[in-house]
Amino acid sequence: MTKLLPILGALIVLTACGTRGTEVGSVGVDWTGNDITIESVEDPGVRGVVCHVAYFNRGFIDRVQQGNFFEDPSFSAIDCSATGPVVIGDIARGKGGEEIFRQGRSLIWKSLRVARIYDADNNSLIYLAHSRQVQKGSGKMSLSVVPLNGTGATWAVQPR
After folding, report:
1. Does the residue 160 lie in any domain?
2. Which 3 state secondary structure label does DSSP give 16?
3. Which domain holds residue 143?
């Protein structure tokens, strides 16, 4: 039993890490229990925009076979769309944008993140899903753009 306590603690930490969306689907990939999970994530700064993020969840058998029990792959995909009237709040307008979603993908360092960047020149919201990993960088990414032209988007706080 004492050997199970660290594993149970790690699972609790993994479950509690970061902002989570609402799971809308899960597709089984193979017989080892690997799944692709799809979550909907509402942008907290922009009413009327929702993103769907898909990511890989390793099953128990795959974790044991790979010998890396506490980490999931960095692969993810994202697609965002306007789902109703778009009302933009007080969002970051700098080139770095701001993070709207984060989920732990390993026991300590790796996380899946979604950042929103406002492209003023093209009047668009850009959503970037990427892995943040201290040792291997964040080279795996996915991008989605929500054009605001023609959507009747309004600003709750006027841009500066």
Report:
1. no
2. helix
3. 4-155
